[in-house]
């Protein structure tokens, strides 16, 4: 995925919100924390490390929703598709995690992936593939 001339970036939360996400678009409810924070599960990241950071919804937010929004990605061409792999942890039976795609010519957000009702209490990985001939956000 290409944004501001870079590609193939690995996105973690070790020093701040990673470059792919809007710093200003971190809606209330999201907190940057690690497994040592004492807030509750998860107590480690997807590699089993308790000191590395991830984003989490604060418990005060439930049952409402919160959004993470990427920066603008540039259009794909035939030679490049955009693949985004992310790790997620669901510890609430009623929770739904959705990935949406907003193309710049459209007002609405198209739901391209979702998972709900899966009380896994473990990290799972998912990869989404995006093909867009115009600028977009995820």
TrEMBL record:
<dbReference type="Pfam" id="PF00629">
    <property type="entry name" value="MAM"/>
</dbReference>
<dbReference type="InterPro" id="IPR000998">
    <property type="entry name" value="MAM_dom"/>
</dbReference>
<dbReference type="GO" id="GO:0016020">
    <property type="term" value="C:membrane"/>
</dbReference>
<protein>
    <submittedName>
        <fullName>MALR1 protein</fullName>
    </submittedName>
</protein>
<feature type="domain" description="MAM">
    <location>
        <begin position="9"/>
        <end position="138"/>
    </location>
</feature>
<dbReference type="InterPro" id="IPR013320">
    <property type="entry name" value="ConA-like_dom_sf"/>
</dbReference>
<dbReference type="InterPro" id="IPR051560">
    <property type="entry name" value="MAM_domain-containing"/>
</dbReference>
């Amino acid at each position: 995925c290409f944004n501001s001339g870079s590609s193939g970036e690995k996105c973690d939360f070790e020093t701040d919100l990673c470059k792919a996400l809007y710093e200003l678009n971190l809606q209330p409810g999201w907190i940057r924390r690690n497994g040592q924070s004492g807030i509750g599960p998860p107590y480690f990241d997807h590699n089993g490390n308790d000191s590395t950071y991830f984003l989490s919804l604060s418990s005060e937010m439930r049952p409402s929703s919160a959004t993470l929004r990427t920066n603008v990605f540039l259009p794909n061409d035939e030679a490049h598709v955009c693949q985004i792999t992310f790790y997620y942890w669901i510890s609430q039976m009623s929770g739904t995690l959705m990935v949406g795609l907003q193309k710049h010519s459209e007002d609405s957000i198209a739901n391209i992936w979702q998972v709900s009702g899966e009380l896994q209490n473990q990290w799972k990985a998912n990869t989404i593939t995006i093909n867009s001939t115009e600028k977009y956000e995820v």
